[in-house]
Amino acid sequence: MFIFRTSNTDPKLNLAIEEFLTKNKVYKEPILFLWQNKNTIVIGRNQNTVEEVNIVKAKEDKVTIIRRNTGGGAVFHDLGNLNFSIIYTDVKNNAVSMFEQMLEPIIKTLKDLGINAQFSGRNDIQVNGKKISGNAMWKWKDRFLQHGTILVNSDLAKIAKYLTVDRSKIVSKNIESISSRVTNINNESDKEIDVQEFINLIINTYQSLDSVKELVLSKSDYELIQKIKEEKYDTEEWTFNKHSTFTYKNKTRLEGKGLVEVLLDIQEGLIKNAKIYGDFLGFKGTLEFEQLLLNKKYSLEVLRECVESSDIENIFGNNFSSQDILDLLIQ
């Protein structure tokens, strides 16, 4: 296994590094990428930025807002949080079923600190019923990225300050606040630890399980990374998208699956624009499905054909059915 750690805290550059490592098939062995972002809100690939973030407060406090490649919900990163990315080739397409397995070294590291960490729900690591790590995935060809956060000593008040909670999530789960559902390592351990110490402990865990070597990027690698950053992560289009006027809106939280919001612009019976947002965990993204809907007749039969010809599980998550999506598209 390769390990790559960086002292860079620019989220746009870090996400460009992560994308470069994921798409670069020269690496035959798995990669563990350890990184941090300074004062950043990271939006899930399929989320509507303006509904997930208190943009006014974030801009007042000079917080960077950026979209990532993976699905799931919005998160706040500061230097009390650690990000880890596990990147590997997945020829047999087993990655989804390996989600929990890939987190075992992280959970072991937490348990070695005396913290009773457990895999929970769709994508979380919890301690005493509170979330300490959220995780998501993205697949590019036969390369697979699974990444997550670990709250070591993060300012939890800022999570509540900058991120909004959808009302349907509050109603369905009786949630009072964001900060009441998360915790730091240092809130759960008898001994305080800083992020750099925790990074070393993670590396030690991996070294005990596998042969580990440092990954060194070349000057030409960084030139390609900079190109990805400038062409994608530096653009407002990537993070904010273009917002249109939609004539059909349906926003529903499916218990155990996630929030899905469907926006369609229907003109003279044809779908002229389509956008699907949500915190669902499919790793394929919604763009291909949205494009499939364009200029299609807005009818049950046509929409069913579109849904049934699409890779619904990889777009939305392996617990979604075609009927779930069809019910969202037409009422």
Automatic annotation (TrEMBL):
The reply on keyword Nucleotide-binding is yes
For this record, the Gene Ontology CC terms, alphabetical, are: cytoplasm
Q: Which domain of life is it from?
A: Bacteria
Q: Give the catalytic activity.
A: L-lysyl-[lipoyl-carrier protein] + (R)-lipoate + ATP = N(6)-[(R)-lipoyl]-L-lysyl-[lipoyl-carrier protein] + AMP + diphosphate + H(+)
Please give the pathway this protein is involved in. Protein modification; protein lipoylation via exogenous pathway; protein N(6)-(lipoyl)lysine from lipoate: step 2/2; Protein modification; protein lipoylation via exogenous pathway; protein N(6)-(lipoyl)lysine from lipoate: step 1/2
Q: Which GO molecular function entries does the Swiss-Prot or TrEMBL record give?
A: ATP binding; lipoate-protein ligase activity; lipoyltransferase activity
What keywords sit in the KW lines? Answer: ATP-binding, Ligase, Nucleotide-binding
Which positions fall inside the BPL/LPL catalytic domain?
A: 26-214
GO BP annotations, alphabetical order: protein lipoylation
EC nos: 6.3.1.20
Q: Which InterPro entries does this UniProt record tie to the protein?
A: aa-tRNA-synth_II/BPL/LPL (IPR045864), BPL_LPL_catalytic (IPR004143), Lipoate_protein_ligase_C (IPR019491), LipoylTrfase_LipoateP_Ligase (IPR004562)
The protein in question is named lipoate--protein ligase
